[in-house]
Amino acid sequence: MTEFAPIVERRRIAAEDADLRRALQRFVEARLRDRTDSEDLVQETYLRLYDYRRTRSVADVGSFCFAIARNLVRDHVRRLRGTPAAAELSEEIVCPAPRADEILAYRERVDVLTRALKAMPALRREVFTRRRLDGMPVATIAADLDLSVAAVEKHVVRALADLRAALDRRGLALGASNDR
After folding, report:
1. d(CA 93, CA 108)
2. Could you give the 3-state DSSP secondary structure of residue 174?
3. What confidence tens digit (pLDDT) does each residue in 13-72 have?
4. Residues 151, 154, 157, CA angle at the centre, nearest 5°?
5. What is Dmax (Cα atoms) for the chain?
6. Helix 35-53 vs helix 5-32: angle between axes, to the nearest 10 degrees?
7. Per-residue pLDDT tens digits for 93-120
8. Which string of DSSP letters, residue by residue, matches 112-137?
9. H or E element that contains 89
10. CB-based contacts of 66: which residues, under 8 Å, 6+ apart?
11. Which of 10, 37, 39, 13 has the alpha carbon at shortest distance from 24?
C-alpha cells in the first residue's frame, strides 16, 4: 500500500489545513464579532504565512498562524478606534421632495382653482390672470381693457374671494394643513 501513501498524506495535510482555517476563523471572529472582517483577516493570515514560507521554514504552522492572526486583530482594532464612528442615519431624514399626500392635496387644490377660474365671469378672469399670473401692472391692465384702476383692483379682490370660497367649499383652505 505504499503507492497510496502520498495520497493519504495529502488528504491528512488538507484536513489539518481545513481544521486550522476553521480554528483561525473562530479565533478571529470571537474577537471582532464581524464575520466579513474575520474572513478577511484569516485570508490575510494565510497570505502572510505563504509569503514567509517562500524564504524560511516554519516549524509550527498553527502557532505561527495564530500569532499572525492575533497581530492582525490588534492592528484592525487599532484602525477602527482611529476612525471616527459613522453617524447612525435617522429613519426620519427629511426628504426635500414633497410627500405623496402633499402632492395629491396640491393637485386637488389646482383642480379646484382651475374650475373656479373657468366659472368666473370672463372679464374678472382676464383681469386676475393678467395681474396675478402674468404680473402685469394695474395701470397697464386698466389701459388695455379700458377700465379704471379701481375697477381692476376690485376685479382682482373679487377673483381672490371666489378662489378662496371655492377652496373653502372643498375644505382645502390655503395655508391649512390637510390631514385627512
Report:
1. 27
2. coil
3. 788 888 888 998 999 898 888 888 889 999 999 898 888 888 888 888 888 889 999 999
4. 155
5. 120
6. 130
7. 667 787 888 888 889 999 999 999 999 9
8. HHHHHHHHS-HHHHHHHIIIIIS---
9. none
10. 24, 27
11. 39
